[in-house]
Amino acid sequence: MSSTSSSQMGQLVADKHVRYILMAEKKKESLESVVMDHLRMNGAYWGLTTLDLLDKLGTVSEDEVVSWIMTCQHESGGFAGNTGHDPHILYTLSAVQILALFDKINILDVGKVSSYVAGLQNEDGSFSGDMWGEIDTRFSYIAICCLSLLKCLDKINVEKAVEYIVSCKNLDGGFGCTPGAESHAGQIFCCVGALAITGSLHHVDKDLLGWWLCERQTKTGGLNGRPEKLPDVCYSWWVLSSLIMIDRVHWIDKAKLAKFILDCQDLDNGGISDRPEDAVDIFHTYFGVAGLSLLEYPGVKAIDPAYALPVDVINRIIFTKNDC
Amino acid sequence: MERVIVAHICCLRKVDPWHHWRWVAEKLGPEVAGRELDCTWRVLSLDAKHYLAWSHRQWALRALGGWEDELDYCHELLEADVFNNSAWNQRYYVITQSPLLGGLEAMRESEVSYTIKAILANPANESSWRYLKGLYKDDKESWISDPSVSSVCLNVLSRTDCFHGFALSTLLDLLCDGLRPTNKHRDSVRALANEEPYTNLANLVCTILGRVDPIRANYWAWRKSKITVAAM
């Protein structure tokens, strides 16, 4: 259970969060760990990125993590959520992102991984998550982000990919998972992120979307993901990064948001929850710290709003030559 | 039976089952439309805003049909919770996509009437105000000239028992889109002013919004800076 701070702005108990993440990694037999077993790759990305943002990536064994990641690679080139599971675009991005954190993208057969991802593009420009064909704009973002990190964006039809994303734009300026689907902050992050990476932000009505996004801020200071839903720390990432990418972040009350995130901390045991007084988990710990990074909270490294990786990691990739 | 098997496989594979159900249903054809709609109905009866269920329902209508009762279904959900943004979104989806209705323009009058009723019952409902504006997509002229739009704003502003933010922002949009304000508009807004100076109506609306919706003060200040001569 998380405890609330006083009415003043609380503090980020960074050391406690580091300890929480490292302990969670060790508790492989815990119920939470067993249930999350199939998406361990996502969990690893959330935990490790948080550690890097708090400048504590050195506390984990790079070799152990990297060798485990490689056991998750399928013969198709894609990565699974854990050893022995099926590959999916979701885990493939997380794998590449984790390797980026450790500056180990060079151990990949980049051609193979990028071909797996590029092979998931459909004729209408959309992307499927895996061989079973589910389509969702989340997968458009994942593919574009992943291929951009691997410097293989030219392996896909970028124009068609953008066209499909734009077809998911709604009247309120937001985006859904498929054409006609309700605008949702998570989907908006994916679409805006993909458009940002491909240099296509001119398709976004920034004023209109900016207003929809800033309307997500509730009286508590926290952000929700859709009208009339409860605030949740994870939207501190999805809404905030979207606002930053369209240059409208000054439309929310940043101080109130920071206080909301800090109030979601478990000040005794570390970790961050979805809202004050709820149980903590790795997912919300990552999004809370990432949100504070976007708010330029002292002691947290800067994070790139489109790639969801520390800025110094992205800079390193930009300045590294890579053969696709 | 297929659904049980698919659910079991998805559980074993630890994947989300919605897409697999679509895969099976597509093989079985339009006869299963009712069944797919029924399935999402069950999920939505537990969580009326379940994002994946709504996505599946939209797919089912598009691929297999069954549009006949959809508008009534949206109404049922909105009766239970008028703040259900997913249901408002689905309503918009139906009136624009259903092959059985006449399209947005044909449905506009009845939908405006429906929405205004919902707004007057709950003026602090972001979804209903957005839906109202959406009914005038690409038709700014009708949006600013339809008297019912302007009068729902005035109606809400004259009440003392509710949040005025959405009525004010809608009036602001109307003014910026070319609505010529009447004395009724000016008096309504001035009645809400706290000794704030009157320079022009749109400007005053922004000032009041900065006060009644302070968490978005920066946004309303920006809107104020964008007011052109036409909106005065």
UniProtKB/TrEMBL annotation, chain A:
Gene3D superfamilies: 1.50.10.20. Pfam families: Prenyltrans (PF00432). Its cofactor is Zn(2+). Its EC number is 2.5.1.60. It catalyses: geranylgeranyl diphosphate + L-cysteinyl-[protein] = S-geranylgeranyl-L-cysteinyl-[protein] + diphosphate. Residues 13-308 form the Prenyltransferase alpha-alpha toroid domain. InterPro entries: PGGT1B-like (IPR045089), Prenyltrans (IPR001330), Ptb1 (IPR026873), Terpenoid_cyclase/PrenylTrfase (IPR008930). Keywords: Metal-binding, Prenyltransferase, Repeat, Transferase, Zinc. Binds 1 zinc ion per subunit. Catalyzes the transfer of a geranylgeranyl moiety from geranylgeranyl diphosphate to both cysteines of proteins with the C-terminal sequence -XXCC, -XCXC and -CCXX. Belongs to the protein prenyltransferase subunit beta family. This is Geranylgeranyl transferase type-2 subunit beta. It comes from Camelina sativa.
From TrEMBL, chain B:
PROSITE patterns: PFTA (PS51147). Keywords: Magnesium, Prenyltransferase, Repeat, Transferase. Pfam families: PPTA. SUPFAM superfamilies: Protein prenylyltransferase. Gene3D superfamilies: Protein prenylyltransferase. The keyword Magnesium applies. Its cofactor is Mg(2+). Its EC number is 2.5.1.58, 2.5.1.59. It comes from the Eukaryota. Belongs to the protein prenyltransferase subunit alpha family. This is Protein farnesyltransferase/geranylgeranyltransferase type-1 subunit alpha. It comes from Camelina sativa (False flax).
